[in-house]
Amino acid sequence: MPRGEARWARLLSDGGEPRNWMLVLAPLLGLHADGWAGVGWGVTAAVFTAVLPTLILRFGERRRYWGDRHVRRRQDRIVAAPGVMASVLTGTALLYGLGAPAEVSALVTAMVAVLLALLAVTFVWKVSVHSAVAAGALAVLTAVFGPWMLALAPLVASIGWSRIRLRCHTPGQVAVGLLIGSTVAGPVFALLR
Length: 193
Description:
Elements: H1 3-15, H2 18-62, H3 74-97, H4 102-122, H5 129-145, H6 153-165, H7 171-192
Helix pairs in contact: 1-6, 2-3, 2-4, 2-5, 3-4, 4-5, 4-7, 5-6, 5-7, 6-7
């Protein structure tokens, strides 16, 4: 791969990490739902869906439970999943229990649904979490702000391209991630918001 292309692929992959989507999306939906008070709810959601899972993954990487922060090996993802899911489920319960705005709670629940679908597939095959979360985020953004958000579709596709170019995933694994993210997150979010 040419050097410039590799740099772009790494930038897109790192920038399009699942945690980054949640760090931006949760406070944004909170703001949309309930102004500045909603931002606080969004930050709370981001702590449980992005910050704590990142710390869990880094801890596991340092302890050598898995190879890196992307948890590239399918078998390692099964080992990492319980800690990440515990954080996300705890955050989901807190958001519902404390009365967070419906859009924030629905976002986190939609991402739980995506994670469960990804985990089910992971028992037999590796799938792109980057692509699934990016596609799910796009589905949620489109539901909240309208079809003009589809202008972000090339960004979502570029993140998938980056995962293929970095040899982290095959085109099929990226395609399945995109499919799971868009077909699971969108309907779950729409139902619960």
